[in-house]
Design goal:
Length: about 325
């Protein structure tokens, strides 16, 4: 019986296929077994089921982030839930989890390669044309070596238009470090940052929309002036992918030849976590509404205004029909 189970799992590549959404919609770097381990840790502390585990916040923010990623894994990767609920032995589960990890890393590689070329096309279509030229396959001339990509990557705390600032960044001056403590300019609408109102325009950069549509709708949709006319899930359901797109876009703009968590001093995991916390952990009702409005804006930009109900449905129980029916029951 055990041998049959092992052969069944080993003879199928389905787990590699089902693992592809993980890097897009679940987490940036964690392995499936680590996310499951966080759930098991909470079970070991006394949780009877997943609902109990949901209430067991940790003092360690990384453990809480890992558990939130586990919850997304259960939604976006149903095969992981089936494996978790199965009675398969450890070595069989380890093999299956490894296949999911392979699929997730493969999808990240495919998306990075696709955006590397697409970003070149988008930037070279600008007027005036970037000089020096940005090449589709060679990334060595990108990043802060190029005035265009450098301006997009430059932290909003620095003035890229100032030649002294540009030179200092390129010379790794300690007063102009490039870290995840600052938002890159490409995150802002028209690269405009207001220190008195730092959330204004945040996560509304034009390249962000193009990158998201390239990965989640279709490559051709990035050239359409109107949003994709798709009966698709809303950006609320894909906000994990939306924040992953920001990380992918930064990598595409950079001069790094291969993906790595830390690029010079810039930590992509920290960058990703900052975005996750902004979207998922608003500290007040006002901040929550700000995030809600931001996701509504994204939904309209990507999927069109007529699909707004998919993101923000009416409160039908408070509308006139419901009120009339309730009145008649009195």
């Amino acid at each position: 019986m055990r041998q049959n189970k092992l052969i069944k799992i080993q003879s199928s590549e389905s787990n590699a296929y089902y693992g592809r959404p993980i890097r897009r919609l679940v987490c940036l770097t964690e392995r499936v077994e680590d996310l499951v381990a966080e759930f098991n840790r909470r079970i070991g502390l006394g949780a009877v089921n997943e609902s109990d585990a949901d209430t067991m916040d940790s003092d360690d923010p990384d453990e809480n982030r890992r558990y939130r990623s586990f919850k997304k894994l259960m939604v976006w990767c149903p095969s992981a839930r089936k494996l978790l609920q199965s009675s398969a032995e450890h070595e069989i589960l380890a093999f299956a989890y490894n296949k999911l990890n392979e699929g997730s890393d493969g999808a990240r590689g495919d998306d990075s390669a696709s955006l590397k070329c697409a970003v070149t096309d988008w930037l070279m279509e600008r007027t005036p044309t970037p000089n020096p030229t940005i090449h589709r396959q060679d990334k060595s001339g990108r990043g802060f070596y190029n005035d265009v990509t450098g301006g997009l990557l430059c932290p909003v705390d620095y003035d890229w238009s100032n030649p002294t600032v540009r030179a200092s960044i390129r010379d790794y001056h300690p007063d102009f470090r490039i870290t995840a403590c600052s938002w890159p300019s490409f995150l802002y609408e028209d690269k405009c940052y207001d220190p008195q109102n730092p959330t204004n325009g945040l996560f509304k950069g034009k390249l962000l929309i193009k990158a998201f549509k390239r990965v989640f709708t279709s490559p051709t949709s990035t050239y359409e002036e109107q949003p994709a006319d798709l009966a698709a899930r809303s950006v609320r359901n894909k906000n994990s992918g939306e924040r992953r797109t920001r990380r992918d876009l930064r990598f595409a703009l950079s001069s790094a030849g291969s993906w790595r968590i830390v690029d010079d001093e810039f930590n992509h995991q920290e960058f990703y976590d900052n975005i996750v916390d902004y979207l998922e952990l608003p500290p007040s009702p006002e901040a929550e509404k700000e995030v809600d409005d931001l996701l509504l804006w994204w939904n309209q930009k990507v999927f069109g205004r007529k699909f707004v109900s998919d993101y923000r449905p009416q409160h039908a129980n408070k509308m006139s029909v419901a009120m009339t029916l309730a009145r008649r029951r009195i």
